[in-house]
Design a protein that fits this description.
Elements: H1 17-28, E1 32-36, H2 42-51, E2 55-59, H3 63-70, H4 81-89, E3 93-96, E4 107-110, H5 125-135, E5 143-146, H6 154-164, E6 175-178, E7 197-201, H7 204-215, E8 221-224, H8 227-257, H9 262-269, H10 293-302, H11 309-337, E9 345-349, H12 364-374, E10 378-382, H13 408-412, E11 416-419, H14 428-434, E12 438-440, H15 444-447, E13 455-457
Parallel strand pairs: 1-2, 1-4, 2-3, 4-5, 5-6, 7-8, 9-10, 9-11, 11-12, 12-13
Antiparallel strand pairs: 6-7
Amino acid sequence: MAETILPRAGMASRARPEISALAEKIARGEAKLGIIGLGYVGMPLALISAKAGFNVLGFDTNAPRVAQINRGESFLSHIPSEMMLDAVRTGRLEATSDFARLSEPDAILICVPTPLTKQREPNLSYVVDTARAIAAKLRPGQLVVLESTTYPGTTIEVLKPILETTGLKSGSDFLLAFSPEREDPGNPDFRTAAIPKVVGGDGEEALKIADALYAKLVVKTVPVSSPATAEAVKLTENIFRSVNIALVNELKLVYDAMGIDIWEVIEAAKTKPFGFMPFYPGPGLGGHCIPIDPFYLTWKAREYELSTRFIELAGEINTAMPHHVVDRLAAALDRKVRIGLNGAKILVIGVAYKRNVDDTRESPSLKLIELLEERGAIVAFHDPFITTIPGTRKHAALAGRRSTPLDAGAIASFAAVLIATDHDTVDYALLALHAKLIVDTRNVFARAGLSGAHIVKA
């Protein structure tokens, strides 16, 4: 474990005996953990907690999901059902929709969504509702940790006052901390337990006990001086990715105009052993973090009369990429197939936001489908991980559409195939053989050694 950075002087306070008892329970592995939100973040956290020997009570408002978990059935493609079943059979994992049971856990970890409003402002309604549910059952000696990505100050300015309406005080009656999730769904090299965990506590005791808990769950902890610092760490990580992806997306447009292949440039540049880190262009940003989190900081910065021009510019570039892809597809159709986009049948490969996952949150593929249909195209999709597009707030009209099976006849019936997500299990050789036109936003055909005049990069 890294050396602890202690909170500023004056933050520690005299704790109740229940807090000492909590520390002992965690040290012995006997603490009961409550995890609120059993999705892409909460479910892996619940499983590693159960594997570490803790009893876990998971909370979720989705009753069918709760029932599925209690049957030991996985609902996430990157989590095998055997892992879920093992946790349930051993009695280490139970799921419930009964939030009246929040008094049972010794530590409560909050993994709920923090989306944006239509105006790109933080929507903390899930955090606030969860805090109120916890407050209704909060008891002395509990540890509450927020894991949801948010702006610096949320834990202390939003969560803490709600919990203290009970009359209990953070640091003396209960403990409060922030530890940002660092999930990368579908990445076999970095599963939850193998990723270091940043921890910031509201006071010295909160930091010490929250850090001790996570030290039993993950390979390494990184204690920092405050919850706000931990909140800033998470935003910095995702802003770093957003800005660098925007940079290569802009370079793609510039180099394309010059007749230079951005993918070849990046492959050559990354041979430099220092001073360069490869990022790759695409059809837009997706996922639950990178398209959203930077705007949490831009919103908070306005409170301090500061502008975040660099971050906002990166957001504008990344948001514009689906429009560029559609324009590129329309131009390729006109030049190579001699038809316009209006009335053309288009097959989109992949509606997940990244390869080899079944997650459509903020997926640029959904925006691409809408833009294509606005210009009169007839659009179908194929995704080996997603048989039916789920309901989303932004793209409700697409819910229920089903994946089209891939075969030679089906492929040949489309005027063009658009590669939006480069899943490994797609038969790209079949596509190359039978498609009239392929527009590749992920460079997957070049990586597979497939080429042809009908394959265009975008």
